[in-house]
Write a structure and sequence with these properties.
The protein is an alpha+beta fold and 105 residues long. The protein has 2 helices and 6 strands, in the order ααββββββ. The chain has helices at residues 3-21, 27-40, and strands at residues 45-50, 53-55, 58-60, 65-70, 74-80, 95-101. Strands 1-4-5-6 form a 4-stranded antiparallel β-sheet, with helices on one face. A two-stranded antiparallel ribbon has the order 2-3.
C-alpha cells in the first residue's frame, strides 16, 4: 500500500472516531478508540512502539514511543488539545493527527 493510501485510511479512521466522540475527550480515549477502529478497518499497526535514539554509535532507549506505526511505514502521533489557536494548521479538530512516512528499523 502506498503512503498516501495508508494515510487516507488512517485519517478516515480518525474522522470516524472524532465524529462519534466529538471534542473534549482525553487523549487516551481517542487512542483506545482509534486502536479499535484501525483493527475494525483491517489496518495493520503497532501501538506504542519503542523508538530508540542512536547516540555515539550506541542505541539508547530514551523513552520515546510511537503512538501508532501503521503498515510499518507511517507514524501516527495523536494529540488531544483543549483549544486550537488560529495559526494555520493542516488539520483542525480536537485531536491533532500527524501521519508521516518513515523508516523505523
Amino acid at each position: 500500500m502506498l503512503h498516501e493510501a495508508i494515510t487516507e485510511r488512517v485519517l478516515g479512521a480518525a474522522m470516524k472516531v472524532h465524529s462519534a466522540l466529538g471534542a473534549g475527550c482525553l487523549e487516551s480515549t481517542y487512542d483506545a478508540c482509534l486502536r479499535y477502529q484501525l483493527l475494525k478497518d483491517g489496518v495493520a499497526f503497532e501501538h506504542q512502539r519503542r523508538l530508540p535514539v542512536l547516540y555515539d554509535g550506541v542505541q539508547v532507549d530514551a523513552g520515546y514511543r510511537i503512538d501508532f506505526l501503521v503498515e510499518n511505514c507511517v507514524i501516527v502521533e495523536l494529540k488531544a488539545v483543549e483549544k486550537f489557536s488560529f495559526r494555520p494548521c493542516p488539520l483542525r479538530s480536537s485531536t491533532a493527527l500527524v501521519a508521516r512516512p518513515c523508516s523505523v528499523r
